[in-house]
Specification:
Layout lengths: L15 H8 L3 H19 L9 E5 L7 H4 L5 E5 L3 H14 L4 E4 L9 E7 L8 H9 L2 E11 L14 H10 L3 E7 L3 E3 L2 E3 L2 E6 L3
Parallel strand pairs: 1-2, 1-4, 2-3, 4-5
Antiparallel strand pairs: 5-9, 6-9, 7-8
Length: 207
């Protein structure tokens, strides 16, 4: 979901609060989260670092569909979302699961070099300033920490389309000072009869 300081404009209908109650019963978001988690473990398998050792920031966590999987493996997770209704659903999961190591927040902490891993699932294409948001998040990574996000791919010739191009993703990661940048197709899933092939952008903070 979208962070509190980067609200979208015309793309905000319906609001995330409006869809929060039914979000987890929609097979589309669940399938996407499962595929994204597999993509996450695949990306980390090619780079130093393990979920079991990582302090994680889930930026735009929504109702916590990725956190359902991360909570079983990560020692500390900050879950950020601007939607109070989405965080309320997540809080119910935290209470039911006894996830004392998961902390829901309306915005990221300002403390630099706080996280080993920052993830953002289908959110950065919604913010007003994608490069600036990536830049702010990159400052929160510890040396050697990883930034991994998934977003819909936009055709470079479609200036008004939704999503991000491969070039936009790579440039934002580079301008943020990240290294070992990779942008590639993340996975392929069927959602409502349509094949979805989001991109995965990965960058690592210099040591």
């Amino acid at each position: 979901m979208v962070p509190v300081d980067d609200q979208p404009s015309e793309q905000a209908e319906p609001s995330w609060d409006d869809v929060a109650a039914d979000w987890d019963t929609d097979p589309g978001p669940r399938a996407y989260a499962a595929a994204a988690f597999h993509s996450l473990t695949e990306a980390l398998g090619a780079r130093p670092g393990r979920l079991e050792d990582s302090r994680v920031l889930d930026f735009g966590c929504g109702t916590g569909l990725l956190i359902e999987r991360l909570a079983q493996r990560c020692p500390a997770i900050d879950a950020v979302d601007s939607s109070a209704a989405m965080l309320e659903v997540l809080q119910q999961k935290i209470s039911a699961g006894g996830w004392d190591h998961v902390r829901p927040l309306a915005s990221p902490p300002a403390t630099p070099a706080s996280y080993d891993l920052i993830i953002a699932s289908s959110v950065l294409a919604f913010v007003d300033d994608h490069p600036a948001t990536v830049g702010r998040l990159a400052t929160l990574l510890r040396p050697g920490g990883h930034f991994i996000h998934w977003d819909w791919e936009r055709d470079p010739g479609d200036g008004d389309g939704h999503g991000l191009t491969r070039e936009e993703i790579a440039e934002a990661l580079a301008v943020a000072g990240l290294r070992q940048i990779a942008v590639e197709s993340a996975f392929s899933i069927e959602i409502d009869g349509v094949t979805a092939r989001p991109l995965r952008g990965v960058g690592t903070a210099p040591i």
